Amino acid sequence: MRVLPVLLVLLPLLSLSGCGEPEKPAASDKEPKKHLVEIITAQRQVVAIERERTGTLRAVQEIQMFNQQEGRITALPFYEGDLIKKGDIVARLDGRLLEAQLARAVALRRKAEKDLQRISGLVERRLTSQTEYTRVETELAVAKADVQILQTQLDYTTLHAPISGVVSARLSEPGNIAERYTHLLTISDQTSLITQVPVSELLLNKLQLGDPVAVSIDALNGQQAPNDQSLQGKITRIYPNLDPVTRTGTVEIALNPTPDGAKPGQLARVKLRTQEAERLLIPFVALRRSGKGEYVFSVDQQEHAQTTAVISGLRIDEMIEILSGLSAGDRVIVRGFTNLRSNSAVNIVPSTAVTSAAVSSTATGTAQ
């Protein structure tokens, strides 16, 4: 057989044919694929922040009337809903026993006054000692104090209205025995209503006393026009302390004058609006968060993505306020985050309609 010579002839031919093929480039020599991203330019925009909060209406002043002297109730003339004026008698207790005790104390005081007048003459003529004069003088002082105490207790049997208002609660009836410090009735001044609402710490420092506030009351069925002056309130108090858990403070809004039909206990919707101010805004979708804090992907001059740490403020509609980390004019990536890393080469594509709508702003934004 002549197989061996044939093989020896074919081997050189195969080696020559392999040398003629071009070498394939190594995988490491391929140009990395650029990320497709959409960007916006960070801009400073003049906007006012608006936020709606709900609260409960209550009277600006509500007085609970308690008796300081026990006794039987002889008069309780007013009922719930009755209007009263400051100084009106709203309750009276039986004070006959105190009147008798007061009459006795007055008689003892008069006797002490005469005794002191008599003893003064004896002291001047040296017919009695100074010690006797001091004793009588003390008896007169005690008698005057007893009269004052009983007179005060007798005054407590008649209760006068400390404010003008409406009786919102009547808790007893004439003939009942009222022990000391019994709640007899409540007087409410409803000429002005107030409500208190929680406000975020980020918005709290942007509010000031006297700022106008739009208020709507659900119970009035929206009969008032949005610009009705009767539904315009103002900030009358900003409480200094914050809740350490929720990071919110309390703002008090006064509604004065009170619109027809508004009553304590009703639900009120309050729209807080800050003064217009210039803020650096970017779309909220551009903000990233990690265990180290907040950041965004920005694009540098070499068209590479860079991780930029930022501190955000209030969210306004679809935008977010940036307090530090960015400057106006910085290019920020808003879409194309999948597998995006710092220093990654990017290819910028035109923004979509959704992104463009998020960037456009109005004079007033709703904070979330």
UniProtKB/TrEMBL annotation:
InterPro entries on file: Beta-barrel_RND_2, MdtA-like_C, RND_pump_MFP
Ribosomal protein found in the keyword field: no
Domain Multidrug resistance protein MdtA-like C-terminal permuted SH3 positions: 280-336
Cellular component, GO annotation: efflux pump complex
Database matches in Gene3D superfamilies: 2.40.30.170, 2.40.420.20, 2.40.50.100, Helix hairpin bin (1.10.287.470)
PROSITE patterns: PROKAR_LIPOPROTEIN
GO molecular function: efflux transmembrane transporter activity
Signal sequence coordinates: 1-20
Family annotation (SUPFAM superfamilies): HlyD-like secretion proteins
Aminoacyl-tRNA synthetase keyword on record: no
Record's keyword terms, sorted: Signal
Domain of life: Bacteria
Annotated ranges, domain CusB-like beta-barrel: 197-275
Family as reported in the entry's similarity comment: Belongs to the membrane fusion protein (MFP) (TC 8.A.1) family.
Protein name: Membrane fusion protein, multidrug efflux system
Naturally occurring in which organism (per UniProt): Neptunomonas qingdaonensis
